[in-house]
Amino acid sequence: MTSPWTLYLLAAAALLFTGIYALLTMRNLIKLFIGVEVVSKAVSLVIIATGYAKKSILVAQGLAITFIVVEVSLVATALAIIINLYRHTKSLDIRRLSKLKG
Amino acid sequence: MTVQILLLAGLILSSIAAVLVKDLIKAAVALAVASLFLGILFFRMGAPYAGAFEISVVAGLITVLFMLTIALTKTGGDVAESKLATIAFPLFFVVFLAVDILVTRGLIKKLTTLPAEPAAGVFGEVLWKQRTFDLVGQVAIIFAGVLAVLALFRKRSKDTDD
């Protein structure tokens, strides 16, 4: 017997796994950040699905909107950092950032 | 229920495509498609405001920001990803899903939620009256983001002046 909530939680777990896999294995900075985005999709899915299952969708919606605002702010800052790093190292390869030098 | 399953499948598949596709532009578009599926799911769960935010802000604005970054970093952008990671992904994914289904089945009954009265009324009222502090936090975070972006780009222009 699977309830819709269980299904949503399983889907969110699959998304979380995909995002963390990308964070662990990818080398391109933008790809890594796409992994972070996938993780954040899992989080907002869990928030809304739990609100829906536990009959408090309005509060969940408020939380999801707060989360989306945080996400946008995070994306803007992180992409600015990525552009700065690119101008510094002329590459998007994460392995070239392993040396903390100049 | 079938529609929900299809939407969830679309969401997961396009997220996987966003992670595994080599071309960065295609990956950004796949991420936008995933946001679209998520937004439709929100609408179906009775959360129209969150759905509208998800589609307009995440599928729209964030995709534009990604495209802009990809365009600005075009020349050095081709980083060789390890092929093994792409090939091994389905295996790890299936193993994770199997373990997750087993664990979730056992745990789902034990999950309890905090006692709370079901929220009633209009969404705007709940957001303004119950979650006022969240709004203050949102304003603070937007300001922090703006200041961070300004600081990052100003520092760079000072570097080039030197």
Give an account of the 3D structure.
The complex is a heterodimer of chains A (102) and B (162). Chain A is mainly alpha-helical. Chain A has one domain: Orthogonal Bundle (Helix Hairpins), CATH 1.10.287.3510. Chain A is built from 3 helices and no strands. In chain A, α1 runs antiparallel to α2 and α2 packs antiparallel against α3. Chain A is elongated and about 50 Å long. By secondary structure, chain B is mostly helical. Chain B folds into 2 domains: 77 residues, Up-down Bundle (Four Helix Bundle (Hemerythrin (Met), subunit A)); 40 residues. Chain B is built from 6 helices and no strands. The longest helix of chain B is centred in the C-terminal third of the chain and has 30 residues. The mean pLDDT of chain B is 84. The interface between A and B is large, with 71 and 79 residues.
What's the topology here?
The complex is a heterodimer of chains A (102) and B (162).
Chain A: H1 4-25, H2 29-53, H3 57-89
Helix pairs in contact in A: 1-2, 2-3
Chain B: H1 2-20, H2 24-44, H3 48-72, H4 83-107, H5 123-130, H6 132-161
Helix pairs in contact in B: 1-2, 2-3, 5-6
CATH class of chain A: Mainly Alpha
Radius of gyration of chain A: 17 Å
Count of domain modules of chain A: 1
Mean pLDDT of chain B: 84
Outline the biggest β-sheet of chain A.
Answer: none
CATH topology of chain A: Helix Hairpins
- Our estimate of the beta-strand percent of chain B is under 5%
Q: What is the compact description of this entry?
A:
By secondary structure, chain A is mainly alpha-helical.
